[in-house]
TrEMBL record:
This is Cytochrome c oxidase subunit 7B, mitochondrial. It is a single-pass membrane protein. The keyword Membrane applies. Keywords: Membrane, Mitochondrion, Mitochondrion inner membrane, Transit peptide, Transmembrane, Transmembrane helix. GO terms for cellular component: mitochondrial inner membrane; respiratory chain complex IV. The chain crosses the membrane at residues 36-55. GO terms for biological process: mitochondrial electron transport, cytochrome c to oxygen. Belongs to the cytochrome c oxidase VIIb family. Pathway: Energy metabolism; oxidative phosphorylation. Pfam families: COX7B.
Length: 78
């Protein structure tokens, strides 16, 4: 390994260790995700289900998932 790369990795590891040590002693305060994360997730899931429920039931889209009767063999060309 090159000396410059080794020094860069060493500096990065040291700064990560320092940050982790600082955060370990700090009192944890709830942030936005701690307070509202589950609510936002459930709200998004509800909107997702409502939109797709509408699309599948009310939008009038002809899905046509079965290929039976639609695919006809073509004449073989030599």
């Amino acid at each position: 390994m090159f000396p410059v790369a080794r020094a860069a990795l060493n500096l990065t590891a040291r700064s990560v260790q320092r940050t982790a040590a600082r955060q370990a002693h700090r009192k944890h305060e709830p942030d936005f995700h701690d307070k509202y994360g589950n609510l936002v997730l459930l709200g998004g899931a509800a909107v997702f289900a409502a939109v797709w429920g509408y699309v599948f039931t009310q939008a009038g889209i002809e899905w046509g998932l079965s290929p039976v009767g639609r695919i006809t063999p073509k004449e073989w060309r030599e």
